[in-house]
Amino acid sequence: MTMQAESKIVEAISGNLYQSYLSIGQTTGGEIGREADLTWIYTGQPFLNRVFDAHIAGDAAARIRSVQQRYAKWQVPVSWVCDPATEPADLAVQLQAQGFQHAFHSFGMALEMPSWQPRDLPPISYERVADDQLMQVWANIVSAAFHGFSSQILLTIFSGISDPRWSYYLGFVQGKPVTTISLLTIGETVGVYWVGTLPAVRGQGLAASLLNAVLSQEIDKERQKLIILHALEPAHNLYLRLGFEDYCSYNMYGWSAEQPK
Q1: Taking Cα atoms as reference points, which of 137, 201, 199, 147 lies closest to residue 169?
Q2: What contacts 96, CB < 8 A, 6 or more positions away?
């Protein structure tokens, strides 16, 4: 693969991620700020508030403080994403100097769909979320899988997304919903998000089976050429086994007005 082709994949990984944030910012009570040097979203809730796509040319410390003042006014925590193109190069250091704390590192991964073949994994039944009742079930599982996320707030946020490019799926074991994923399709790129499994049934490969099934049955290989996702360390090897490759990395830094500097 040429450097130019790899660069385009990295751009697609970031572009899909940032569009997912913008969709969330468009929910009821949310706000979006597209400023010259960064973009931010406020969800109207104490979750999923983000600052991203930063290209700060001036006084980065002062700019960070101005962002903190905005979220302090709303009295909500915020997470700042540092990606491969973030400017200045030492923004992560400056964020920490202003009280942000490193939350996690993720791998920007992708697979090229035309050449991908489904893996030989145990089959799983699944259903696309198509009504409010299933959306509540989806939110409940995501809440259990990602500790700290209120199921009711998740339901409020995701039920409020009007972007038809999103789709949500539930995986079932013996008729019971146990695992989730969501997809965001933008042109030829499909982003995979909210891959979660109920804690009681983790370690059985259920999320891998669900993703394998959805990719093989729901994706149009003639139209969707690239599948992207952002993997945390515990799930990294799972995605490698499914055929994803590493292309870049991201770091998330969190801040709340209530935490000491």
Answers
A1: 137
A2: 102, 253
DSSP letter assigned to residue 236: H
Residue 261 placed within a domain: no
pTM for this model (two decimals): 0.94
Residue in the block written with tokens 């499909």? 190
For residues 220 and 116, is the Cβ–Cβ distance under 8 A?
no
User: Would 82 be classed as within a structural domain?
Assistant: yes
- Write out pLDDT tens, residues 150-161: 899 999 999 888
Task: Note whether 235 and 135 are same-domain residues.
Answer: yes
Residue type, 12: A
**Are residues 140 and 224 located together in one domain of the fold?**
yes
- Cis amide prior to 88 (ω within 30 degrees): yes
Residues 61 and 138 in one domain: no
**What confidence score (pLDDT) does residue 259 get?**
63
pLDDT band at residue 92 under the 50/70/90 scheme: very high
- Pair 81, 129 in one domain: no
Per residue in 171-180, is it b (16+ CB within 10 Å) or e — as a string? bebeeebbbb
Q: Which domain holds residue 100?
A: 3-107+250-255
